Amino acid sequence: MQDYVSQLLLAINNYNPDDTESVNVLRDLVCWISDNKILKKDKIIAELLYLASQKMRVFGYNMLNEFTEEPISSTGYLSSISATSITNLYRSKVYSNNILDKSQQEVIDLFQKLPVRRLLVSAPTSYGKTFLMREIVFLNKDKYRNVLLVFPTVALLLENARMMQKFVLDNELDYEIIKTVDVALDNEKKYIFVFTPERALQLIAAFPDLCIDFFFFDEVYKIDEDYYTDGTEEDEDKKSVRSLRKPKTGESAQEFLNEDRGKTFRIALYLLAKRVSEYYLAGPNLSQENFGIGMIRFLRCNQITVKEINFEPTLRIAVNAYNAKIEEKMPEYLPESKNTNLIPYGTKINDRIRGVVSYIDNRKYGKTLLYCNSPRKAAEYSVKLADRVERDIYESYPDSFKSFVQHIKKEYDVDHSVDEWSFVQVLKKDSVYITENFQNIFNKKF
Prior knowledge:
- It contains 19 helices and 10 strands.
- By secondary structure, it is an alpha/beta fold.
- The protein folds into 4 domains: about 90 residues; about 200 residues, 3-Layer(aba) Sandwich (Rossmann fold), CATH 3.40.50.300; about 70 residues, no CATH class; about 60 residues.
- It has a 7-stranded parallel sheet with strand order 3-4-2-5-6-1-7, sandwiched between helices. It has a 3-stranded antiparallel sheet with strand order 8-9-10, with no helix packed on it.
- β8 and β9 form a beta hairpin.
- α2 runs antiparallel to α4 and α7 packs across α8.
C-alpha cells in the first residue's frame, strides 16, 4: 500500500502538463488504482486520487471514484477555497453538475475567442465533442437563431435529436428540434436541425434563403478519402479508394452519391462552409500530417483553426500481435502482466483478428472495440468472428430478440437477400451476451 502512496505522491509532484511522460505516468496510476476497490479504501490513497484529478483538471476521475467532495475534509480555509474555485472554473454552463476537463474548457474558450469562429477539433473517441457543441450553442443562444447539426448516420441523428430536445427543455430554450426537411418553417421561430449529410443537402435545396447561423459537422474525417490512420489494413483497401468522377449516363444523382458517401459528405460540407460564417467540425484522432491535399486546402481557404487533443484519459495496455506471439505490455511502473501467450495463426488478417479476439475472451477483458478502416472490413470481420460459433444458439434467444431479428428481416428485405446481410448473420450467430444487453433495450418504451 505504501508503494502506491509513494508513487502517487511522486507522480503528483512531478506532474507537468507540458511534459507528456509525466502526464501519462499520473494518468496511468490514477486509472490503475481507481479500478482497485481495495486500494481506494485507504483514505490517504483516496485523497491522493482526488488531488491528482484536481491537478490534471480531469474531473471525470473523481466522478469515476464517486468523489462528490474531498475524501478527507480540508483542514485549511484556503485549501477549501482553492478546491471549490478550481471546480467552479470548469463547471458546465449547460448542466451545473458536470465539470469540464481542462482541454474541454480550452476548446470552448478557443472557439469563443477566435476572430473567425471556425474550428476543427481532433480528439479521442468519447472525448465529448458533441457535449462541447451543446456548450457552444448555449453560450451563443442569443446569437444563433438557426443551428444545423450534421451526423453521419440516422441512428446518431435520432440519438442526438433526443439529447438536443432534452437540452432545450432543461435550459428552457425557445428552439424547435427539426429532423426532417418536410416541414414548414416560420421566420419568427428558432430552429435546431439535426440531419445527416443527405438531409442537409435537401435542406439547402428546399430552403435556399434560410440563414443558418452555426453548424456542427460530426465525424468530419469521412470527407477525406485520402486520409489513413496507421496503414495496418490490407493493401486492397487503399486500392479501393476511388477518385471523383462524373455520373454515368442514365445514372441518377442518388445512385451517384450512394456509390461513396464520402462524396455526399464533401459536397454538404463545402456548401455549408460557403454559406455559414461560424462552425465546429469534429473527428476522432485526426492527425494533420495524414490529411489529403484537398482537406489541407479546404482548411486553409476557409480559415479553419485546428485543435488537436492527444491526451487520452484512460490507461492503455498494449496487446501486440504482430506475428505468432501475443505480448501484453503494461507501463513499467505498474504491475507487469506475467501472461504472454503464443497462439497459432496464419498470415491472413482475418485469422489474426480471430486469434486476438480469442485471446481477449480468454483474458476476460470484457467489452472491447475493434477499429476498422472501412465499413466493408467491419462487416467482413464481424461475419468471420460470428462464424466461430459452431452451435446453433438462435433458438435459445429470448422471444423479444427473435422478434427484433424478424422485424429487421421484414423491413429491410429490399431485394430478397436479407439473409445474406452481414448484420443479420451476426445477430443470429453471436453470443448470448448480445441478447442480454438487447433485453434491456426491449424492456424500454421509446
